[in-house]
Here is the input.
Amino acid sequence: MADYDVIVIGAGLGGLSSGALLAHRGLKVLVLEQSGRIGGCCSTFERDGYRHDVGASIVEITQPIELVFKALGTSFGEEVDLIPCDPIFSVMYRNGERITVEKSIEATGKLIASLDPADGRRWFDFCDYCSDMMDVLLDSILVEPADTLGDMARVVKKNPALLRYLPNFMSTYQDLIQKYFKSDQVQRTMAYQSLYMGMPPALCPGPFAMIPYSEHRGIWYPRGGMIRIPEALVRCGQKDGMELRLNTPVTSVIVRNGRAKGVVLEDGREISSRMVVSNVNPRMLYLDLIGEQHLPWLTRTGVKSLKYGKSLCMVYVGVDCKPPLDAHHSYIAVSMQEVNDFWAKHVETGVMLPANANYGLVCWPSHSDDSLAPEGHHVLNVIPESFYHLKGTNWDAFKDRFIDEYIDYLSEKLVPDLRGHITHAIGSSPVDFERHLRLPEGSIYCFHQDASHQAVFRPSSKSKCIDGLYLTGSGTHPGGGVPTTMSSGYIAYSQILKHERC
Amino acid sequence: MNIKKILLLAGAAVAVYVYVKQPERKKRFLREILRQVPYLIPRYFA
Here is the structure.
């Protein structure tokens, strides 16, 4: 008899969601996490009394999260104290001007009209279009398995309106934004958000153009830091008997007669189980933890062809004053062309652009939750644009200089006198994320999120070549992000209920 | 030349014309999609 019903490898949001749900269903669940902290990219760490979020900085599109907590017999609001963020973001222009965007669609319409009256009128048409598209996608593809053509047919049958929006996958984010907005200044308030999907506006699929609208449905910050979400999942799971072991790396998945039978730990111990749920990167799972010998050649070729997406670089800063910012999120205003050029001229060539031409996102979580820093002090988590493959150098040699120059640039141009108030600044390069979070190439969304890496073309939630193996996390459908990884956990759980004896 | 071949050639000509008429950024998007086409079937089995 197996030691456990289910072993979950990785305590990211996907692994914890499926683990807690399966434990709630009465299964004996063990979650193994290689690091000393839960949540993966949706986590928080403390340094000198300041609490910094590792990667994810807010929560939006909460329906999939609500779905998970509802299935656990509770609600998101009951488990996590959510602080609404309004204004939702501020745009900082390089000439010192700023625009602050409120949650209200009407107020944003007026703001856009003040920049360009015709665009102001079209803003409401854009919101109507995106609202309908978002409802359709949320109701259909975001919470359902998309492993096979049969799954896709079921999704379309459930909500035929999806067919109306599928052609958008052949258009781009930029196409859709420019269809509605003609003013460069207005487009600059929406260009950066395409990187929420890890791609520049010219390559990001059209449906993701709903992001500038979706933020107006609300964004929230969990009081105490982003780690409150995985902590809530652990709390729910442990009530139902789920076991969690930190600092326990898995070196391989045991496969016998084409079925996953358990795992081998770094110290050589074997733990058996009836099923295995993997929350690790699917390429790493199949090629390293399972081994090519267990994979049919078509699967092997498919897994190897998956391209990693956007790399993450973060600077965690503590300051001894209230920073002169206006919102939880502040973008450095950037045109669609600049983001596209960064991708074409820098990401693809490996030549980093100078700090004073860089852009990015400044997250100010202590604006929403003052408990994150000592009294009178604040926390800033800064995300400069970066990539993994550097030409002629490496991140270990380059990181300190890059971060130093970027802070100088912010301090001189955008956040006056930031440098003089810094109590600490910790940099984390794409290579650091690769080492500590097992994110190959520091890719926060795992694989690309273009049409060729979506739905049936993303690794399946139920393995197509190994029975009893289920996948969750950003490397599976529906992709990277807080609600989507939790959705992937829910999908893995529903697949297990459908295909296994529970 | 039979009708099938004529239709195929006409279709290819229209596709090339449409591609050439696209702005450079759209061509890049289409090239990215085309570059991924050979991997779609293997990815389906991953």
